[in-house]
MORN repeat-containing protein 3
Amino acid sequence: MPIVKYPRATEPLWHEWDRKAQKCGLRHRVYAVNGNHYTGEWLDNLKHGKGTQLWKCSGAIYSGDWKFGKRDGYGSYSILDPVTKEYKKVYTGWWKNDRKCGYGTTLYPSGERYEGEWSGGLRSGWGRMYYRDGSIYDGQWLQDRADGQGVLRLSNENRYEGGWKDGKKHGRGKFFYLDKGQLFEGIWAADIPKCGILIDFGRDEAPAPPQYPIPKV
């Protein structure tokens, strides 16, 4: 039997196969064993550039920017409505290292909405929250809670302006009781007014003022 001599390879053949299998630059659709799949751009075998990821189990979809395998840049995250079977956007905005970071808008299942800054996936910075009961908070946030300076407007037009800590009124602030035509200005701690002064404020225009005005000191 004749002996066949092959040319000596400069590198193992599997190196060449592996190099050809690497996804880079072009758009590819790749399915995982669990049913998840990604369609988009790649770099060094990682999701990188523009792309869309579908999570089979939850039915959630992310469409936007990727960087070395993680959501990074601008994109939207949507979930499948079990009733209408249509996709509803939950978050639209900026991402960093696979978490919400920068400016973005979130719609909550309860119908509440947040528009503002994020850090590490939590509301942090300046933002506005629209609550289910009709009240609106506009101010500073820290780790998903109102913290710093902010204004809370209630559905009856009464409002609080001042300091916040851990989601509660804290520090110097003013509470405008516009329905009664009164103003309280003082110091708060953990949502409780500790000391201050209560005066008439817009009493003549108030819809439900107390029977007697507050005596002047």
